[in-house]
């Protein structure tokens, strides 16, 4: 995944200015987290399964 | 002077008048000032506070008051706990100019009520985001068992201070393994209680969904005593349970009685190197555990914890990332930044997976009372190590030290770590994992391993 466009857009949206070195490292970190996300996104979860935290008013 | 071996013995000697609390405090302060230059476990030695607290204990004794259970016993705290009059660093250069805390954290107040004496604030991975306590600004904390190795993290200062004998016990935190990893690497006993068991009020947060607080010590009885004194509801902490105190110290000697025990396989075996597997096998033999069992999808649980951590920590630090990026820990800044940029549905789904995994784990606890796994894939890594090798696979070291701890803290199971020792003389801890709210079972198992002299935590003293 080429993260450059994503990072540029998300950084702008969040008011972060990232130089080339920081952008490259953020891209490396996103690569790692994306691998984790695949493990979660690829696992079927029925709609009825609540989030772990449950709010109690 | 030679300090008493255990917190209980220290308290008893002071109670009987064999030694004053001030003598003990002064001895600890002097020892720390001299020997901690090697280990860098402390960011502050609290001389005035410790001496004032010690004097108060001595005055109470002289006045004929009944002394509380830990009167005069010196202890240390990871520097994310509020200590009145000092700045709460949370390992962060970012925070050094913050205003000092106006009161002690809830757990510190409880220990003060029990008479214990804070002697130091301890180094940690910045923000609690790390497993090694290689802190660029405050320095690396060296492992007292081998100063060329890390003390683990993020509560490395706690692991080192207890292993080196600077304090009888230490207060620390664990989000993905930060009590359990230093306990394993430094060879001390540690307890990550059930999520929400202990008050987090006055402890600087890292990941609100996953932060736990708990103690480390050099023996099970001290650990249980301290843990029992820390328990209790706290209306100031919405995440803290209202359950009544469930004392564990009187239950230790129940030992193995009727416990159904199994070793965790799958993910927990796959990512355990040879020393870790050996430690688990030895612990299982002593505990009489012949079964193995699987926590399903544990690798996904680790992934969920990773995503929840990245998102919540990134969000927490986003303002500072915008305004003061140059003040950040270089090892963590881009991790936090990336976390703040993730697609939201990754986090939402991870929180729902968490409930799935929680239900799957509870089914396992229908069959067994205690589960065993290694705390770390290997013994303490060398300072500066960028990679580690597990069963022929090379991985980046720093994020992967917590492979075996993360799935369990995702669902807040109580875990005690008991330190076993490899043939090379390095410690490696085993996790003793129970169902929610059953810290008594974890601690009984630790006690069994200690009684069998398989798990132990000597003070590392300098060679003369």
Structure commentary:
The complex is a heterodimer of chains A (57) and B (464). Chain A contains two helices and no strands. Helix content of chain A is 56%, strand content 0%. The relative contact order of chain A is 0.12. The interface between A and B is medium-sized, with 29 and 37 residues.
Give a nutshell description of this structure.
With 57 residues, chain A is mainly alpha-helical.
**Assembly form of the protein:** heterodimer
Residue stretches of chain B low in confidence (pLDDT < 50, at least 5 long) are none
Question: Termini separation of chain A (Å)?
Answer: 42 Å
Largest interface: A-B, 29 and 37 residues
Indicate the mean pLDDT of chain B. Answer: 97
DSSP, total strands of chain A: 0
Uncertain runs of chain A are none
Largest sheet of chain B: 11 strands, mixed
Q: Which sequence of SSEs, written as H and E, runs from N to C of chain A?
A: HH
What's the average pLDDT of chain A? Answer: 96
Query: For the CA atoms, what is the radius of gyration of chain A?
Result: 16 Å
Number of helices of chain B: 16
How much of the polypeptide of chain A forms β-strand, as a percent range? under 5%
Measured distance between first and last alpha carbons of chain B: 15 Å
Task: Kindly report the spatial arrangement of strands forming the biggest sheet of chain B.
Answer: 1-3-2-8-10-9-16-17-13-11-12
- If you compute it from the alpha carbons, what radius of gyration of chain B comes out, rounded to the nearest whole angstrom? 20 Å
Provide the helix percentage of chain B.
25-40%
Shape of chain A: elongated
